[in-house]
Amino acid sequence: MNGPSTVETAERIEVTGLVQGVGFRPFVHRLADELDLDGCVGNDSAKVFIEVAGPSRRIDEFVARLERDAPPLARVDRVVRGRTELTGFGAPGFRIVESAEADGLRTFVAPDTAVCTDCLAEMRDLGDRRFGHPFITCTNCGPRFTIIPDLPYDRPDTTMAAFAMCSRCQAEYTDPSNRRYHAQPIACPECGPTLRWLGPAGPVETTDPVAEAILSLRRGGVVAIKGLGGFHLVCDATNPAAVARLRARKLRPDKPFAVMVARVAAARALAHLDDTELAELDSPARPIVLARARPATPIVPEVAPASPLLGVMLAYTPIHHLLFDAGSPPLVVTSANIAGEPIIHRDEEVGRLLGPVADHLLTHDRAIHAPCDDSVVRVVDGELLPVRRARGYAPIPVRLGEGVVPTLATGGELKNTFCVTSTTHAWVGPHIGDMGTLATLDAFERGVRQFELMYELAPERLAVDAHPAYTVGRWARRNPHVEIVEVQHHHAHVAAVMAEHELHPGTKVVGVAFDGTGYGSDGTVWGGEVFVGDASGFDRVAGLAPVALPGGDAAIENPYRVALALLHSTGVEWGEDLAPVAHAGRRERALLARQLDGGFGCVPTSSMGRLFDAVASLLDLRHTITYEAQAAIELEHLAREDGTGGRRYRFGLRGPVIDPGPVVRAVVADLRAGESRPAIARGFHRAVVDATVQVASGLRADGGPSTVVCSGGVFQNALLVSETRSGLRAAGLRPLMHHLVPPNDGGLALGQAFIASHRPPPGSES
Ligand SMILES: [Zn+2]
Ligand SMILES: [Zn+2]
Q1: pLDDT for 522
Q2: What was the pLDDT predicted at 760?
């Protein structure tokens, strides 16, 4: 026993990081008990604080194990130790004290987490009081970010405040030895939320909503199901009519859907998954993993038409598991939203789903505070490549340094995310959607407000894309109270990679930004740029030769028009044997030719994304698209079919100009010579890689930086990422790619924040 006679010392220890809502205090309690230390542990909004008294050797061990043995969801950022008075430890033993408000930096909020194996075992145990409970959770699992309107993380501050704990839940909640000790979303069938089943005519009385849902799915129905961060639209992935119905109702003709299954074994039966992909699939974040589909599975082709990849994800809420336990087929699971809008997450909005889109609704009365979509990742050569960053990852912070200016970065127009910073960290919000609707701007404003509240942030700067017409940019410029910092689109892309890899803002890098569309510093459309610079600025040292695009952005949906413009600019006749020429038809060609010759309504663009589109059209792969980057994605797939090593093409490198002319002319010649289309697609990819490596090596030879940062939407292409990385390495350079935020515009906000928050105040020396 610890009497005052054995007490040698007392310390106050402060722990910051991801330490709230992850069972950190109970863990500290158990650790102190095990080491027979007296004292207390508490939360405030900035940190976990601990006071311990005991022999100093045991306190040292205690501190070492604080980091080493921390609970699975915790991330310890910093541990600060200091001596304290021995008084106040009169009562032996260790206890948890009430939360206290505090000033200063706020602590981190955990992302939402898949239900854990302990909880699942109880849910399937007939003798357990939570048998079949759809809301089972513990300190190691369940909703976090999506149910927290404010910190500190205590039950009254979550959307669970509406549910008064029963005496048995209360007992577990207050028992330090219980695995639900201080688990805020704790509930049971007696006191927790309940499932509800709705049909077209409204609520339907049933004792088993899960069985009703299975019935509806088996009949080919589309069911809207409330998940962690919003509603999903769900149907039987083995039923072609059901999938076709979902496509028609969601107005989504081509874009692949993801499939949810219960277990790793089921996922492996559908797709080839390597160790990294399996680890990611089965991680607490439970993202959608894009992997190579196996042939001849029960998944119907309508799920992912024209794609050799399949997005797979594992069940992650108790409700999903109850569905699969009750015999659900593999499920198409897609966010319930209307074309580019944010995911629907409020019960008031379900009227928009039921009837027009969903036949039935499986919902419940635990409110979702913050919407959060499913995350999407690819794995390239064993490394993570995020495609959409949301549930399970948001809001993990990125360290920026010390004393930066608190900034709100507003992101881009498509795939918008925002990013807020303190003086030391950046938090990237979850994927919101495509701007341009009131619903998206509303979700943006609400998200920003939530982050500012959670972390007590008051941005002094607003970072905006330089594009004058971006919705969020116009929103930001209406705010007269803070300084606006305009950030060039591709500079932000490059800076996002710098931020992820925690580079010093003054580190000189070669930035390769291959993108669809971005507003250039000269007012034209950029997207095939090579920079040398750092966070403070850049020189555009090389770039794809601009092509005049008739109609500018309107051409994005019509790769054949880009192809015609490219043929025109590279001096190739519009022969009717070429696929885009034949696709256009005589009248449209006559109009386009006049436009191109006169330059009316033509916007010069140096976009690499458009070049991929044009080549896809030349190869007769895709002439018009129904979702972003569709043609380029299909070009990657085609290139992977090549077994010959591909054709050899070379861009013309004339000073700062990367000229696609030689590549385009060679591609046309190969098409006319009847070469294999996959070999041509492969050769085109390799030409882009070779040009990148050649430009970067040339810069290095002239004394430029050895670090080469690659970003922009084109780097969602796994083949390009893989070969660019190995090509740059082979040339003795240091390639850095995205691994935390997506290379597409979803990663823009982090880069904007990195640039703007490090910028010296106006008027100061630079
Ligand atoms: Zn659990
Ligand atoms: Zn209860």
Answers
A1: 86
A2: 87
Q: How much is the pTM? A: 0.90
Cβ of 156: how many Cβ atoms within 10 Å?
A: 10
What residue type is assigned to position 273 of the chain? L
Ligand nearest to the CA of 129: 2
What pLDDT, in 10s, does the model give residues 59-118? 999 999 998 999 877 888 889 998 887 655 556 788 887 665 544 445 567 789 999 999
Supply the pLDDT for residue 752.
97
Asked if 391 and 373 count as a contact pair (C-beta separation under 8 A), the reply is yes
Q: Which ligand sits nearest to residue 119's alpha carbon? A: 1
Strand bridging mode 537-544 / 657-659:
parallel
Number of Cβ atoms within 10 Å of the Cβ of 703: 6
**Full DSSP string of 318-369:** HHHHHHHHTTPPPEEEEE--STTSPPP--GGGGGGTBTTTBSEEEEESSPPS
Q: How far is the CA of 207 from the centre of ligand 2 (A)?
A: 19
Give residues whose Cβ lies within 5 Å of ion ligand 1: 116, 119, 138, 140-141
d(CA 738, CA 497): 6
Q: Evaluate the CA torsion angle 150, 386, 417, 409 in order and state its sign.
A: positive
Query: Backbone phi, then psi, for 216, in 5-degree steps?
Result: -60, -45
Give pLDDT tens digits for 547-569.
999 887 778 899 999 999 999 99
Ligand positioned closest to the Cα atom of 318: 1
CA 613/CA 633 separation, integer angstroms: 9
At 447-461, the pLDDT tens digits run: 998 888 878 888 999
**Measured distance CA(401)–CA(390) in Å, rounded:** 24
Distance (angstroms) between ligand 1 centre and the Cα of 227 equals 16
